[in-house]
Amino acid sequence: MRIANKILQNKGFYYIIILLGMFLITQTCFAQALENPLGKDATFAELIGKVADIVMQVGGVAAVVMIIWSGFLFVTARGSDEQLKKAKSTFQWTIIGAVVLLGSSAIAKAIVNFVKGLK
Prior knowledge:
With 119 residues, the protein is mainly α. It has four helices and no strands.
């Protein structure tokens, strides 16, 4: 009972309930007005291609920002072994993430070409 009272006294709980209600109302009211952003004759291959393009754009920007951040960490390390280790780790994981991003893009394009070849 005490936990329930603490939850109900928390203002964040009410904000979540209000946002959830607003979301449900907008979904039911405007669901019929939504159109397919790809067009009426959109195919699965086009959908995969568009999603892959969006992921590449967002991921590419994130990779560039993280490379700049790791460079900043290298510069501000000033010879500290712990800071250099953190900077190297950040750079390493950024490169791994960029490679995974490029690989996923290649796989998505291969799927698109395969699906287009089925016709």
